[in-house]
Amino acid sequence: MPDVLIADDHPLFRDALQRAVLGALPGARVHGADSVHSLLALIERYPDAELLLLDLHMPGARGYSALAHIRGQYPGLPIVVVSGHEEAHVARRALGHGAAAYIPKSTPADDIVAAIRTVLDGDVWLPPAMVAGHAELKPDEAEVAARVALLTPQQFRVLTMIAEGLLNKQIAYDLGVSEATVKAHMTAIMRKLGVNNRTQVALAASQLAVDPGNLAALPDGE
After folding, report:
1. Is CATH 3.30.360.10 what the domain over 3-130 is classified as, yes or no?
2. DSSP assignment, residue 211?
3. Quick one: average pLDDT of 210-221?
4. Nearest-CA neighbor of 101 among 133, 147, 54, 140?
5. Which CATH number applies to 139-206?
6. 219/162 Cα distance (integer angstroms)
């Protein structure tokens, strides 16, 4: 039986997506995650999953960063982005980052089933009102996405925590590692992103936000 992953922090919407998945792929085993960190663990557990439905906004997600990272680490995993955003340019950016479909959360259940079937058949799906336009990214955003794709899952976890403004000791506690390990991850992240300090790491991550203007205040000196 095929495995399908759903990442959304709203239980009711996860349930709705599960029903749509089973409508499109009867017999599928559906596995849910309510944060990006739990999603990464889920993907490691089911690396041959048939499909991922990914919400843009949930704990550990910063816009398109999770999409860019997962596409880089698991290029064979089709990803359907689900989001409360109705703007066509948000959908086109998602496709530009490698999503196979973009489903607004207002989409009727039958259309969600149709979208999932389309992606499973190897095609791209967008709501009819969003089809027009190009899925090209700005050069700076595309470069950051390519660099984020090079991070290991643990480095990506650290990146998202930095973008949220957490201190090294908080990151170490949450991940169950030493501060020295967090600093080693920081060094690797800076090298892969081509930046020199913590603030530049967070600024790079902010380029993948749906709204790049919202940047967490960062602690100094770490």
Report:
1. no
2. S
3. 50
4. 54
5. 1.10.10.10
6. 9
